[in-house]
Design brief:
This protein is mainly α. It contains ten helices and no strands. Helix 4 crosses helix 7.
Length: about 180
């Protein structure tokens, strides 16, 4: 049971982040697993500083893209939000269905909380997701990728980040451009 779950999670190492391919034509971009790890580290620190429920935050960060191990990474240009949510919910349910009931219900609760974006933890995770994207864009820019092509990533992050501490970090990221 758990081995299937672990294999599915490990498959995130094989799923490339589609936005980097589509907008920058990167041949070997970061994987969803790369992104999730970076998000988990950022979430741990931000959660501890902000006195959030760190266990919930870390679980949410680690689970937030797990469905992509089944469906792949879609960009907003490829699929509308409603369709993506339906695909992700179906995939997530499939992924956790063989876990022990206590874990399945716990992970489903965290997943739905993340999807609903109504709790302080889910809101900060969505913003950390954008902050991590901006950080990765800045890293790609340092590697010589076009600042003009990366601008949509920075603009998107700027529009979605409202937490004052995350805005401050975002400002530091874009100052290095």
């Amino acid at each position: 049971m758990m081995l299937d779950f672990f294999k599915t999670a490990a498959n995130l190492k094989n799923i490339s982040r589609q936005g980097w391919i589509d907008k920058l034509s990167i041949v070997d971009p970061e994987s969803v697993a790369d992104h999730s790890y970076s998000m988990a580290v950022m979430s741990m620190v931000i959660s501890d500083i902000g006195n959030y429920d760190s266990e919930k935050i870390l679980k949410m960060a680690l689970l937030h893209d797990l469905a992509e191990s089944k469906i792949g990474d879609y960009t907003p240009e490829q699929i509308n939000k409603k369709e993506k949510t339906l695909l992700e919910n179906n995939a997530f349910n499939e992924i956790v269905k063989k876990l022990p009931n206590s874990l399945k219900s716990q992970y489903l609760k965290i997943w739905h909380e993340y999807q609903g974006n109504a709790s302080p933890e889910s809101k900060i995770i969505h913003e950390i997701d954008r902050l991590e994207m901006a950080l990765q864009a800045q890293i790609y820019q340092e590697k010589g990728y076009s600042g003009e092509k990366l601008e949509s990533f920075f603009k998107s992050a700027k529009n979605d980040i409202t937490d004052p501490k995350l805005k401050e970090l975002f400002t530091k990221i874009i100052e290095k451009r």
